Automatic annotation (TrEMBL):
GO terms for biological process: L-arginine catabolic process. The keyword Transferase applies. Signal peptide: none annotated. GO terms for molecular function: arginine N-succinyltransferase activity. It comes from Marinobacterium nitratireducens. This is Arginine N-succinyltransferase. Pfam families: AstA. It comes from the Bacteria. Keywords: Acyltransferase, Arginine metabolism, Transferase. The gene is astA.
Length: 368
């Protein structure tokens, strides 16, 4: 399995992913023209020389090294909300108290805003069901952090991830059902398609601008505020293990939570190791014990490659990582080249990867 930047000839595979993912996966609408533009923008972003983030979009694919098939995709937005707002509701509690009567009450409130303007976002994570295998989900999730660790100037200090909220197998969202009934008579699939296509002006025009008291919502809508789809929980747990936290911001359409972390405090970034590569002349030196597995990436931008190093030997005293010639070739690493790796956590890995792959009724892995 190899991670690389997306190319134009990946359009058909990306379209199939967009169709499979269904409503709610707003970052990949099933529109070939939109997807073609996303690929072009990603290619331009990888080619651009960047000192500060300015709307670049990096889209990667996971490729089967043997067949060349695209197994999944994952992405990073360098700075969201600069050219058009990224809207969220902030879910908080207000207290009302009468001293004369000795009565108090707590009321849930939703306030619409664009708090995360300028932040970086990890997104577009999807593993196709037929390619579920050990470590594939972790590779798609963690490779973004290796890229960010190597090129921090391309990203903001705060990184967010929008998690898919609760919806049923038909794509109906309890939260949006209530919003649709009272404010915007448009089905959930259409709304997410508009947002994914970059058309979200209707949010400020038609959605409620004033504080929305959650007691006015239906019980079903209230219950899902800040909750994730059952099959998105493994993806959320991986991000929580990286240090991401939910601070009350939720999606305005399905009320799924947005989690955030400081770039330098993300665990896989903080613990990643810069090293120099050597090609092992004696394969017996390479360790194959599970505790030595890691995700390894080169330091290129437009020729970025990453994969699982199942055999390696790290010499901490001189910062040298010995790997096989075949892995070096797959990752475009020559002897003496700089690279970066992060250890792959293996506790319950086989179970975790199987669960992480099951993300909707067609069993992909995805966040928004």
């Amino acid at each position: 399995m190899i991670i690389r930047p997306i190319r134009h000839d990946d359009l058909d595979a990306l379209y199939r992913i967009a169709v499979e993912s269904g409503p709610g996966f707003s970052s990949l609408p099933d529109d070939p023209d939109v997807l073609r533009n996303k690929i072009q923008h990603s290619i331009e972003s990888f080619a651009r020389k960047v000192q500060t983030p300015n709307g670049e979009s990096y889209l990667f694919v996971l490729q089967d090294a043997d067949t060349g098939a695209v197994m999944g995709t994952t992405g990073i937005e360098s700075s969201i909300g600069l050219h058009q707002p990224l809207y969220h509701y902030h879910h908080s509690q207000e207290e009302y108290r009468s001293r004369d009567l000795g009565i108090s009450s707590h009321v849930g409130v939703l306030n619409l805003g664009s708090h995360y303007s300028g932040c970086s976002e990890i997104c577009t994570l999807y593993l196709r069901p037929q390619y579920r295998r050990l470590h594939a989900g972790k590779l798609l999730s963690k490779v973004r952090f290796l890229f960010m660790a190597q090129h921090p100037q391309r990203f903001a200090d705060t990184v967010i991830a929008e998690m898919r909220g609760v919806s049923d197998e038909a794509g109906r969202s309890p939260f949006w059902d209530w919003m649709r009934q009272h404010f915007l008579d448009m089905d959930f699939a259409t709304v997410t398609r508009l947002v994914g296509s970059g058309n979200n002006g209707f949010v400020s025009e038609l959605m409620p601008r004033y504080p929305l008291y959650t007691q006015l919502l239906s019980a079903e809508a209230r219950r899902v505020i800040g909750e994730v789809h059952d099959k998105t929980r493994p993806a959320l747990k991986l991000l929580q293990a990286e240090g991401f936290e939910h601070r009350g911001f939720v999606d305005p359409f399905d009320a799924g939570p947005t989690v955030e972390a400081k770039l330098t405090q993300i665990r896989s970034i903080a613990t990643s190791v810069a090293c120099r590569v050597e090609i092992a002349t004696d394969q017996r030196r390479l360790e194959t014990e599970p505790e030595h597995l890691c995700i390894l990436a080169n330091t290129s931008v437009d020729s970025f490659r990453a994969g699982i190093a199942e055999q390696m030997h790290y010499r901490a005293e001189d910062g040298v990582l010995e790997i096989s010639r075949s892995l070096a070739g797959a990752l475009k690493l020559s002897a003496g080249a700089q690279a970066r790796f992060v250890q792959l956590p293996l506790s319950g890995s086989r179970v975790a990867d199987t669960a992480f792959a099951v993300q909707n009724n067609k069993e992909p892995i995805h966040a928004r």
